[in-house]
Amino acid sequence: MKIQIITLFPEMFEGVLGNSMLWKAADRGIAEYSFINLRDYGQGPRKQFDDTPYGVVDSMLMMVEPLVAAIEHAKRNDPEATVILPTPRGQIYKQSDAKSLAVAEKGIILVCPRYEGYDERVTKWIDRQFCIGNYVLTGGELPAMIIIDSVVRLLPGVLGGETSAEIESFQDDDKSIEFPQYTRPEDFQGMKVPDVLLSGHHAEIAKWRKANSK
Ligand code: ADE
Q: 112 CB less than 6 Å from ligand 1?
């Protein structure tokens, strides 16, 4: 899966994409990360990419031209890609969204806004707008990393040998995501691993996991 990231701060991604499973996914040729630096699309000799908003001038906004030029560049690289804008004004991002992006097997283009936001007209070039939680961050880079992590871990061959069909049956938003797990020692400072997990009884363990899932 081609993952293109439009950002003013590509170096923010190094640690996240360069380690553990996201790095392995790239190493195995399952995910391919590339960056489009918005500064390259700035206007005039000062490469300007933000300006004051019409109306109340209390902040800076990302201008529409550099954003659209960068998106169009990314689209030329991958015409079928889904263009995603992380924004507090988007739909709450869910496991089902990660799953549908992973199963579609299309590339994704993540547009990371900075400063106080972006000229609304850019949304004509955007397919999906996602909010990763009810709080406001300083830019779209952290939300973009969260989206990438949640999608790439679902791609076949990243975690195990899952096929797309198996991913389809992966937990949904309304189903359980996690149950408590334990490893050695069996007794840590008086806190014991539940007996059923030591029983080796698969059906009972499955029942226990279901009952204890959040
Ligand atoms: N940009 C700033 N805050 C955000 C949030 N909570 N979700 C997505 N994008 C954002």
A: no
Average pLDDT over residues 63-79: 98
Is 175 exposed, middle or buried, given 0-12, 13-18 or 19+ CB atoms closer than 10 A?
Answer: exposed
Beta strand 50-51 with 61-62: parallel, antiparallel or unpaired?
A: antiparallel
Give the pair of three-digit tokens for residue 39: 């500064």
List domains and CATH numbers for the chain. 2-152 (3.40.1280.10), 179-211 (1.10.1270.20)
* Ligand 1 pocket mutation pick from 111, 126, 129, 135 by most atoms within 8 angstroms of CB: 135
Which residue minimizes the CA distance to atom 7 of ligand 1? 131
Beta pairing partners, 86: 130
Write out pLDDT tens, residues 155-186.
999 997 555 445 444 556 755 568 999 999 99
Mutate which of 91, 137, 147 to test ligand 1's pocket (most atoms within 8 Å of Cβ)?
Answer: 137
d(CA 41, CA 56): 26
Report the predicted TM-score, pTM, of the whole model to 2 decimal places.
0.91
